[in-house]
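Example record for the data management plan.
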Amino acid sequence: GINAEYMGILFIIMEALPFKYATQLPNSLFENNRKKFMKKFKEFVPSIPPNSIILFKGKEEVAIDSTDDNYEVIQESCFYYLFGVQELNFYAYIEVATENVTLFIPHAKIEDRIFKSPLRKADVTKKYNLPAMYENNMQVCVESINPSKIFIMGGTNPMSGKIVLSPSFPWLSKYKVSSDDVYPILCHCRVAKSAEELDVMKSAIASSAEGHIEMMKNCKPGLRESALSAMMQQYGALKYNIKVKAYPDIIGSGRNASILHYDKNDKIIEPNELVLCDCGFRVLNYCSDITTTFPSNGKFTEKQKAIYNLVLGVNRHIKSLLKPGTNWLSMERESSKALLEGLSKLGIVTGDIQEMLKFRVALLFMPHGLGHFLGLDAHDVGAEQLFIPPGTMSEGMIVTVEPGCYFIDMLFAKGAAEWKIPLKYVNMEKVKEYREIGGVRVEDDVYITATGNVSLSVLPRTVEEIEACMAGKEWKSSQYKLLYTSCLLYTSPSPRDATLSRMPSSA
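Corresponding structural encoding:
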């Protein structure tokens, strides 16, 4: 069958490439992150007492119920941002005055050494170029410093609603502890990417784009949605040693494409359906986030083409406006306006555009935001910088631009009334005509440069490019070659703008 043939070919011809980020990022990246954080910390925290330290807790192992094994867990992102440590159950502190770092590692039992081969102190120091002690020595080390104040992370992650990780040892009660400043300052630091971070993210996005092309090329009616997910993940693992997703794959065909975070991925793909694929790799904790939408049998119908071109047009329109100083909320409004104008031309909505904007009619077709920050998390921290005045873009940000158009029955049946959106603007007969499309989303990862922006997710986007790719024609644009060969195969990061400055801004 198709699956067996595909799997066999892939395993035979795909050799591991000399991917520079296959196992570990350079320690210099995290050293520079720490310098950036400490500079901001000293600028924003008033009257730091002498001998103060900042104490951090890494992610712990999470045991699976009723067994002796653990869940696969990703390191807490702020801890990784500062120290680059992927192993779990670590702690660390930074001495504020000297900015010296000490890592604290778990003391492994004999059984752990037999089953898991954990790192010893010397191994940790060699790997991360930082001094390491065992965790049971932490209290003594802190007492030897006798800090006037201990700063820890505190607060709530606005995306998950969860309290951020912070140490909670009984002996901390002997010290003055502050949890107000560390986390918001770290969130602020993580928004603008350094040259080395940009290089890693280009690799995550480039490899993910290749994975999307692999799904596009091999999609056929009769496959299950999960088969496309398997193609994507196998491609990353075999070619680049990428074993972790940035988030659960969303592979929705037909009506499933109207479910924004659909993750069952178990339906059999039918002929003449659109397939929405929202997937991304996590390369050594740095994430990508790309969505493609394509026809299951390689050819768009006229109605599919109309909705797809509308969404692609909104995507390109917004990217043409992004640059330092651009107000993000104005882009949200602009995307709604462009979507309504396109729907009006198709007869799906009728009436005055400004009136429809006032009543938020676009929410019935695009019930999500235009995009979000991207970094060590797919929905990265720092969103308040976009939504709190002045809410403007600045150089170094990486954001997603992901307009969509969906035909969600529940929104017309109940959502409109609950959100007080008048249905008089919606031509329900036309909605029924387009209902089987399900939904279309076109999502790119966009880097804000000094003068504009560059879309880092370069892959087939137009109807013609997608159909040609699905027909078996090789797709490698000049922009693709320029951007991706520089970040996937070479062995050292390039300067921040060495590649980007030679590339045209998104249009």
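Summary line stored alongside the record: The CA atoms of residues 350 and 425 lie 5 Å apart.
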